[in-house]
Amino acid sequence: MKKRFFCLLLCFCMLFSVSAQAWRFTGSQRFPQYGPMITYENLPFDYQMSVYSLFEPTSDEDLEMLLAHIDAEHSEGDDLIYDLRIWYSPDGLYQMEVQVKQPTYGTFEEELLRAPEYLELMIDQYSADSHVRQLHDGRLRKTPMGTMLETAIAYDIYDEEGAAYPVIFVYYDLYLNGLEYCFSVYSYEGDYESAQAMLDEIVQTVRLQVSTQAA
Questions:
Q1: What is the pLDDT of residues 154-179, one digit of tens each?
Q2: What does pTM read for this prediction?
Q3: pLDDT band at 215 (very low <50, low <70, confident <90, very high)
Q4: Model confidence over 101-148: pLDDT tens digits?
Q5: Average pLDDT in the 45-53 region?
Q6: Closest Cα to residue 82, out of 64, 102, 97?
Q7: 3-state secondary structure labels for all residues of the chain
Q8: Nearest residue to 205 (alpha-carbon basis) of 138, 117, 143, 141
Q9: Can you tell me the mean pLDDT for 48-53?
Q10: Region 86-104: what's the mean pLDDT?
Q11: What per-residue confidence (pLDDT) applies to 26?
């Protein structure tokens, strides 16, 4: 099986609109320019988390369009994606995603062992001039839901004048209830340290229901 992640900023962000959600405010955070953190709840997949209040969520309509696009490009060996949620910062510098998907491997322990090979699963999604590189071989992060695996890559994208600028992609994942939950941040023209700090702050607020049927 193969992981599938998509850099959506240039292709889709202009299509996104704010969707109505039931929010409640939570505590302080490290990125005050994006407002206080507010709680998002996903009832179908039994999780909740906090996101910066000024981050704009995609509408359900746009998410359905994106999932249809992913399904249309699905090929044998690709992991199935069951749910996708996306928020982006008002200045266009960050994008937050949650994917609920088919586990890439049979166990989380195997995912940990294969972490150094992550780029091998991704390389065919990038052109040679993107200069994609893996930033580390996988790091373990403590969260309220247990240990998650952090993976990080960087690659270059180009503006209309042909100038290159970096994208940092960091994600944490966890196997639970027979699913793989992936929480990620894209940083455009940023750096690994700030992207990782943002993602870690968000993931520290994640709460997932453990299914007794899946246990």
A1: 999 888 888 888 999 999 999 999 99
A2: 0.84
A3: very low
A4: 999 999 999 999 999 999 887 787 788 888 999 999 999 999 999 999
A5: 95
A6: 102
A7: CECCCCCCHHHHHHHCCCCCCCCCECCCCCCHHHCCEEEEEECCCCEEEEEECCCEECCHHHHHHHHHHHHHCCCCCECCEEEEEEEECCCCCEEEEEEEECCCCCCHHHHHHHHHHHHHHHHHHCCHHHCCEECCCCEEEEECCEEEEEEEEEEEEECCCCCEEEEEEEEEEEEECCEEEEEEEEEECCCHHHHHHHHHHHHCCCEECCCCCCC
A8: 143
A9: 96
A10: 95
A11: 55
Residue with tokens 């109505």: 20
| Of 112, 99, 91, 90, nearest in space to 67 by CA | 99
Partners of 186 in the β-ladder: 95, 169
Both tokens of 159, joined, read 């503006």
Structural tokens at position 107: 């166990």
Reading the block at residue 25, the tokens are 């405010």
Other beta carbons within 10 Å of 174: 21
Q: For residues 205 and 215, give the distance between their C-alpha atoms in angstroms, rounded to a whole number.
A: 23
In single-letter form, the type of residue at position 107 comes to: T
